[in-house]
Structure formats: structure tokens, C-alpha cells
Amino acid sequence: MGFLRRLLTTVLCLGFIASVFFSVYFGMKALQFGDTVMKTEAKAKRTYHFVLVPEEMDNDYWRLVEKGARAAEKDFGVTVEYTGPEKADTEQHIKTIDMAIASKADGIITQGLNEKAFDPIINKAMQKGIPVVTVDTDSPTSERIAYVGTDNYYAGVLAGKALIHDTKGKAIVGIITGRFDASHQRLRVQGFRDTVKNVPGIKIVAIEESKITRIGAAEKASKILDEHPDVTAFYGTSALDAIGISQVAEKRHLTSSLYIIGFDTLPETLNLIRTRKIDATVTQQPYEMGYKSVALMRDIVEKKKVPEITNTETRVIHLQDLLHKGDAPQP
Ligand code: BGC
User: Fold this and answer.
1) pLDDT along the chain (331 residues), means of 10
2) Which CATH topology does 49-150+286-312 take?
3) Ligand 1 close to Cβ of residue 118 (< 6 A)
4) Would you state the CATH architecture of domain 152-283?
5) Which of 7, 122, 158, 216 could form a disulfide linkage to 211, CB 3.0–4.6 angstroms apart?
């Protein structure tokens, strides 16, 4: 009896120990499995964090790029951080890209404003495994994966052709360009120069830099008019230049005699075309640039093949083009 009881007790004890062991073992396995499932789910749900660094944060043109990027953010379930210098400033711009690299962003969308200053920082991001897409301004000499934006040389050619046509091949031209050090601005000037150079009645007499501000454009337009009172036409190559030029023309009562062609279709520019204070403008698609660059970046991080160059549409519009859209001209 005593032996049987001991045997029974031993069996029960062993059974108990075994059940404790198995519960702990399988419990841990279950926890591990749960953890793996959670991690996989979190990975699937993790949104990509892209950083969009514009030349100037609070510039009306760049706000449109941001708007396009925000629409893509919703459509593709990614996060876009819009951050950069308050006012155009190469050092701050590069510092912001460097911070995006340090924060291990999943992708950086920015301009390649000039190869000397921007290629090293773009290449640094790429070498750290952070893909870079250039937007608005390309730097084809860098290691960036793709560019989304205007063909800036071609846009300059279009401006030149429009000026030749609208002035019947006779004009003394002053150019206001956004920044001398920015490659897209230089291309817009070069395309223009190459187009008008063989027209004997057209002469470019001055070129000044606005630092992409309307006040800068106004000051430089005044300077050109003081130094070259015979100027009959202006070409402004960044979004606020023609606006600044038109203010000066108005102040000097030259609105009807000066021909002004600018860039972009900001509401203010379109109003100045409607009121006949600006003659023509080269259109760009900043909203589309923002949207497409985010879409492209999403494809890049998901290892899909993307085109190296996506040129957005550019053309020249005049008052008539706005009238076609049902807009009435204003006095
Ligand atoms: C250019 C931008 C620039 C903006 C300045 C636009 O025409 O494409 O690069 O920052 O003008 O207002």
C-alpha cells in the first residue's frame, strides 16, 4: 500500500512538473509568435517618412508644390515633412537636407540648385541608403535617382519665342533672374539667349538677380531702367519677378509701353495678366511636381523601377488663354 501510494504520488508530481513545464514552454512560444505577428503587422503598417526640402518655405510657388505632395501623402499613405529655409539660403537648405539624413528619412525630395554645393549632400544621402529625387531643379551630375519638373532650358526657349513673336522681333531687353547661382535659372536664361540671339532687332542689355523676391525684382528692374532707359521689354525667370517688374512699370507709367514676360501662374500673376500689366507667362506645374515626386519616391522605396526624368508640362500663356477659360478681361 505504502509503495503504491508513493508511486502514485511520484507519478502525480511528475505529471504536475511536466504540465508546468509544457505550459511555460508553449506559453513562451505563443508569446514569441504573438510578438512576431505584431512586428509583421507593424512593419506592414509603417508609413514611409519622406522629407521635402524647398528652396524657400513660405514662397507661394513652393506652397503649391507642398499642396501636391500633401495630396500624394493621403493617396499613398506616406508621411511628408515639408521643411527648409524661411528665405532662400543655400547653407540653410543644405543643413536641412543633412538633418533629414541624420533623422534617417526614408527619402529626400529637394532641388539640385547647383552641382558644386548640392551634389555632395545629395550623394551623401544616397551613400547612406536614402534615395533622393530632385524636384523643380535637377542636378544630373549628382547620384540622385530621378528628377520631376520643368525642362528649364526648353522653358527659356519658349519665353524667347514668345518675346520674338509678341514684340515682332524688336526689343531692348532687361532680364531679372531669381538667382545667379541656381542652375534652373541659368538654363531659363540660356534657352532665352540662344533663341533670341539671331534676331537682329532684339538686344539683351542687362541681367540682374532678384534673390527670388518681388522686392528684389522691383529694385533691380528700377536699376535697369535707370541705367538703360531705352529698355522696352523685361523677362523675369522666377515666380515673383514679373510681379515686381510690373510694380515698377506701373509706378513709372510704363505699363502700356513695356513688354513683360514672366514665369509661373500664381493667382497674382494671372490677375496682372487680366489687368494687362503682365503680357505673358511661362507656365509650370508645381502641384503636379509635388504629387509626382512623392508618388515616385514611394515606388523607389518599394523597389519599383522609375523613369529618370519626368518633365512636367510647360507653355506660354497670354490674356487670350485666360479668356478661353471664361475669364473676363479687366480694364
Ligand atoms: C522656380 C522655383 C523658385 C520660384 C521662386 C519658380 O519659377 O521654379 O525654383 O523657387 O520660382 O519664386
Assistant:
1) 60 58 55 47 67 97 98 97 97 98 98 97 98 98 98 98 98 98 98 98 98 98 98 98 98 98 98 98 98 98 98 98 66 47
2) Rossmann fold (3.40.50)
3) no
4) 3-Layer(aba) Sandwich (3.40)
5) 216
